[in-house]
Design a protein that fits this description.
globular, binds flavin-adenine dinucleotide, six-stranded mixed sheet
């Protein structure tokens, strides 16, 4: 591609989900963008084994895509999931429990492969004359004071410079590493003692083996498995389990142990995964954790976005949604500062941080809900009451799930609102109980008199 000749010269490191969307947004502003990616072109090479990752794309991500006219193209590769399908423990023929995500039962999150989404965004970015994409460029060194970059490439080091450098290179960000090395930021990494492994449920006779309209969950307390549908009628399962200890990924050392474990914990899955033992042995265990780093920006010319700035655990299905929202927020900051990067980056850092901290905490809390609570009668009753309240008080009582997944209410405002709703409900319930107590006492007195 040839580049336009107006705007700043922006280098984006990482052509993943965040980097590609960012390139599209900035090109629209007339910025000249160079997008550097360490991998070869994924449209030619495909996904890594066991790292296909299905994403649940919801309103925040869709909103970001819609604003630049990409929503429909992306949704063409997605499958709507209107609720959770809970697979009970113990009985392989036990009744499945469908729990709708929204009060009206209609709203859906969308299952899409990370690879397909990335490819669609790469196509969109590369079609723009302002954007140049460089594959097989792995950031090695970077000086935040001068903007001097050094990439390893198959033909040796390449040393471009840029007026603005944006790090969209994921949870293990090299840009963040370089900011740390130059004392320009600080970071905290909190790894879970849980990892994840992918398994595949292929189509059976050309059809889905499970209901494709739901996100399937096998909550087992210490472990949990989920499955999301794919357009080829397969499901990608993700098993979450501790990485070490007596019952963990490390504890299954033979094919028989793998078979035994799945037969005990996930008996209805065993007949659906023909390559269970091979996949279990060959697919890697991925790590899960939360990245916090402050500041994200330095000197008004370097900034981290997406997972590079704030990777979170995947249990609310929000990592990519949140990363896409980062791009929308940065675009708004550029609007508000008349396109002045030196003012926009500090503004972005100041205004976005509370929201990313809020979703990081909600994502951790949702892990406990998904692996432990979703199958309990108290949880199911609670959800039914919540949906009844939403229908009775439309727009006034809205569940946390709906606010996170089906709105663009800032994450920190979601947390505040949900706390307030719970306080009011608590006060209401206390009031009702108090009233019942008073009525009871009066009735007793009246009977005695
Ligand atoms: P990445 O996707 O990691 O992309 C970073 C890019 O930078 C990559 O292309 C990489 O090759 C490149 N790169 C890295 N280092 C360098 C370097 N040195 N030089 C040049 N390029 C480099 N999110 C959701 O919204 N919904 C979900 O349901 C969901 N489920 C998930 C399930 C799992 C198991 C996991 C692990 C994550 C899930 N996520 C989900 C999170 C989502 O995948 C991430 O938030 C998202 O991919 C972040 O995008 P990113 O572009 O910031 O980072």
């Amino acid at each position: 591609n040839s580049r336009g000749d107006s705007g700043a010269d922006v280098a984006i490191v990482g052509a993943g989900l965040t980097g590609c969307l960012l390139a599209c947004y900035l090109a629209r502003r007339g910025e000249r963008v160079r997008l550097f990616e360490r991998r070869a072109d994924p449209r030619l090479t495909g996904a890594e084994r066991g790292r296909s990752i299905n994403l649940a794309l919801s309103e925040r991500g869709l909103d970001a895509l819609r604003r630049i006219g990409l929503e429909h193209a992306v949704l063409a590769d997605a499958l709507p999931m209107r609720g959770r399908m809970i697979h009970p423990a113990g009985d392989p023929d036990g009744e499945l429990d469908f729990q709708p995500y929204s009060a009206d039962g209609e709203r859906a999150i969308n299952s899409i492969s990370r690879g397909a989404l990335n490819n669609a965004l790469l196509d969109a970015a590369q079609a723009l004359p302002e954007v140049e994409v460089f594959f097989e460029h792995r950031l090695d060194r970077f000086d935040p004071a001068t903007g001097a970059l050094c990439f390893d490439t198959p033909t040796g080091p390449v040393r471009p410079e840029a007026a603005v450098v944006l790090g969209a290179d994921g949870a293990g960000s090299a840009v963040r590493g370089e900011l740390l090395r130059h004392d320009a930021t600080t970071e905290t990494l909190d790894f879970l003692d849980y990892g994840y492994k992918e398994l595949t449920i292929p189509a059976v006779g050309g059809e889905f083996a499970l209901d494709p309209g739901a996100l399937h969950i096998w909550p087992r307390g210490r472990s949990m498995m989920i499955a999301l549908p794919n357009p080829d009628r397969s499901f990608t399962c993700t098993l979450f389990w501790p990485t070490s200890g007596t019952a963990s990924f490390a504890s299954l050392s033979s094919p028989a142990a793998v078979q035994r474990y799945f037969a005990e914990q996930y008996p209805d899955v065993v007949p659906l995964v023909p390559d269970l033992v091979t996949e279990y042995r060959e697919n890697p265990v991925g790590l899960l954790g939360t990245v916090q780093c402050a500041p994200w920006q330095t000197g008004g010319r370097v900034c981290l976005l997406g997972d590079a700035a704030h990777a979170i655990v995947p249990f609310y299905g929000q990592g990519a949604n949140c990363a896409f929202e980062d791009v929308v927020v940065l675009d708004a900051c550029l609007d508000r500062t008349g396109g002045d990067w030196s003012a926009a980056l500090p503004l972005f850092d100041a205004e976005r941080r509370a929201d990313t901290e809020a979703i990081a905490q909600m994502a951790l809390a949702n892990f406990v809900e998904m692996r432990d609570k979703v199958a309990s009668p108290a949880f199911k009753l609670g959800k039914r009451v919540e949906h009844a309240l939403e229908r009775a008080l439309p727009g006034r009582y809205v569940s946390r799930y709906e606010l996170v997944s089906f709105s663009t209410t800032p994450y920190s405002a979601v947390r505040r609102r949900v706390r307030l709703q719970h306080r009011l409900l608590g006060a209401g319930a206390a009031g009702v109980l108090g009233l019942l107590g008073t009525v009871g006492a009066l009735t007793t007195r009246w009977r005695r008199s």
